[in-house]
Structures are given as structure tokens and as C-alpha cells.
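Researcher: Re-running this chain for the archive, since the previous output was lost when a drive failed. Same request as before.
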Amino acid sequence: MWGACEMSANSSKPLDTVYANSAREMRQLQKQIQQLEDTVLTILERRSPPTSAEIRELQDFDLISQTLGGMSTFFDTLREQVGTEDCTDIDLATDSITLQLLRDRLRERHELFEL
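Model: Regenerated C-alpha cells:
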């Protein structure tokens, strides 16, 4: 059986590269959200309609939404490629997440999914 990086020389990437690229995307999204938060707070504090430049900045909400949708699809597709014998230590992978509810969701604490 071929290793993950031997299947197709054109499209296969080592997992560390996939993870690094994904982390970079998430950092970029975080930066965009922080900028949008600043813009919204400025508009609210000023109590006047947004300028045309601010309206252009606020359009990044759509880009962020589309990017998150793309990342979700990306991770779903990656998940489908993982063989049944491949496992991840999810507790170790989520230890550094400071948001408890996010950490629990990623660890699939089933009580969080009950209605």
C-alpha cells in the first residue's frame, strides 16, 4: 500500500504541511475577525453611519463565512481519506485550547449535543 505522500506527487502533502497551512488559515481568520471587531466598535462608539471604507471592511464578514465553510469542507474531505487504523489523540490535540466549550466540542463530549 502506498504512503499518503506517494499516492499522487502533484496533490499529496505531508500532514505537517497540511496542519501548518490550516493553522495559518485560522490565524488569518482570527486577524480578520479582530479587525472587524475594531471597525464595528468604532462605528458604535462614534454613533454615526459607517463610512464607505468601513462598509468595504464589513464585507469581510462574507469572506470569513465562505472561508470557514471551505475549511469545514476541507477537513471533512481529509477525514474521509483517513483509514480506519489511523487514530489521533484528541485530548492531546485539544489540550492547548483555552475555550472550554470548544475543547469539549472537539473532544465530542456528548452531553453538549443533547437538545
